[in-house]
Amino acid sequence: MSYLQDKERKLIIFSLIVISLFLSPYFILGDGAHIRVHDNLDSNLAWYKVLAGSGQIAGSLDARIPQIINGLPRNALGTEYSLIVWLYVLFPTMVAYGISQGITRFIAFLGMYLVLKDHFTKGEDNSLIRVGTALAFALTPFWPSGMLSTLGMPLALWAFLHIRKGRGSWPHYLALTLLPFYSSIVLGFFFFLSAMGLFWLSDVIRSKGWNWKFFLAIAYMTAVFLITDYRLVYSFLFDGEPNSRDEYFHARLSFWHSVRLTFKNFLLGHTHVMTVHTLVILPVIAAAIILIWKHRKWKKERIFVFLFGLNFALSAWYAFWFYKGWLPLTERFHFLDTFNFARFHFLRPLILYILFAIGLKILWNEKILRKAVPWLVAAQIILLLFTNEEIVYHKKPSVREFYAEQQFEEIKNYIGKPQHSYRVASIGLHPAIAQYNGFYTLDTYNNFYPLSYKYQFRKIIENELEKNKRIRVYFDEWGGRCYLFTDELGKHYMFKKNSKRRIENIYVNIEQFKEMGGEFIFSSVPIDNASENNLKLDKIFNSKESAWKIYLYEAL
User: For labeling, which of 116, 241, 458, 537 is most exposed (least CB within 10 Å)?
Assistant: First the structure.
């Protein structure tokens, strides 16, 4: 083994140790760990627990989950062919969460390392660049329930590029087969496979041949995704029941607002595909562009130049997807509203980190800049280490404090009836908390649910919506959060026990609430005019292990 190969092996071992340490808080702290709330604790983790206990993991296409909104369609909670579902069936929440993070980050490292080593930074003297970039990519703060939807793209690209060059073998096809079982087609791979299809088509147009192996590999991975995500396919194409996404309205931004959003996304990224690229990666890319211009290497570095242009184009596409100029098309073709085509920007993590690696290689080839490369790699890795959830969310409730199992067990025992025999809803509190603790909720946060139910639920809060345009538009033109919104609290759902907030003047339709089966409201703030709404305060629940003070109101 040469010195350079031995150095690369040591760098890989070091990277695996860093990733393991990065993951360690989940296993050391368990329920005491602090993790992302938005689109995580407030939704997905509760969904997995509800699904695991529903007896409907492999339910029929028309099965319902009675614990949520008097019968949430089973298809709204994803496919049983996704490994993440089974992690939450087999393990406690934080063990499953930690394992899922580990699977995603180690495969992200492997995929980025392989695609750089075989296709973009081949030289032995580039070992630090490819291993360092792969480690940085594996540490990015991805959306947890997205799994490998974005972080698995480098492994898929590695496989496709080998197949495209006629060098495909069983490891490449194995990667294309297994990735769909730990990723989502709508959260990343629809857009990646579309890009691969365009790549294949560009080869044909440029007279490089039809390359049927490449085409069939794309078709094969697409077919595996369609089979594993069959519930989504059925719901999108064959389920005739109108759902909440049918009223999703996205085209509302002005031209100049869309321009501003383009540059915001280009510079800062997006919450679901955070790349943390602003401080180190963008300057590296800019310096590489300057060097290409200085040395007139546009043709030699055409891949870098193309990816740079594509990266900006994806930010523009994301921003202008919300441009109101789409209105004539969305009114004519309804699927343009129900499917989020803005997510082509989910390709950006893959592109940005390949640009980072190639940019570092361009800097490395400049003797005067070579010494800066290791420091730039280290800077990006150190920056990403500070994005560890335990650091970022240390002021948020821990998992134990958020779900407050002991406190909600006390509430259940106080009510003293089987949980399936009554319905609850929450104010100033995510309904996922009640769901996680086994309560049957009229409110929810879900990607789609029957539109008829949205109309039913709206009657409960219609007076509050009339008082507040922001929550009215939020509910009527999206409605994914089917919450007991109030004018005074607005779009805030986490009032902790030390909060001084209170609701002074609420008016909800309690008769409609009771007609839908509602008996109790869990509120994180006191309601001053509860009696005017035919609500009686039964008891206040507090707990050292909870982030909340729960006011239990009973509908009279």
Answer: 241
User: What pLDDT digit, counting tens, does each position of 44-73 carry?
Assistant: 999 999 999 999 999 999 999 999 999 999
The pLDDT of residue 330 is 67
In this structure, how many other beta carbons lie within 10 angstroms of the beta carbon of residue 92? 12
Core vs surface per residue 293-326: b (16+ CB within 10 A) or e: eeeebeeebeebbebbebbeebbbbbbbbbbeeb
Q: Report helix, strand or coil for 366.
A: coil
Q: What is the SS3 assignment for 131?
A: helix
pLDDT digits (tens, 9 = 90+) for 105-140: 999 999 999 999 999 998 878 899 999 999 999 999
Contact between 94 and 26 (Cβ < 8 Å): yes
Give the residue ranges of the chain where pLDDT is below 50.
none
| Cβ-contact 222, 297 below 8 angstroms | no
Amino acid at residue number 547? A
The separation between CA 414 and the C-alpha centre of its own chain, rounded to angstroms, equals 36
Instruction: Name the packing angle between helices 127-138 and 372-385 (round to 10°).
Output: 10
The whole-angstrom separation of Cα 12 and Cα 302 is 29
Q: Which residues contact 284 (CB under 8 A, 6 or more apart)?
A: 356, 359, 360, 363, 376
Query: For residues 54 and 80, what is the distance between their CA atoms, to the nearest angstrom?
Result: 13
Q: Please give the pLDDT value at position 348.
A: 95
Measured CA distances, 395 to 38, 399, 427, 547 (Å):
14, 12, 22, 11
Q: Residue 342: what pLDDT?
A: 78
Tokens 């709508």, located at residue: 186
Would the pTM count as exceeding 0.70? Answer: yes
The Cα 523–Cα 37 span in angstroms is 19
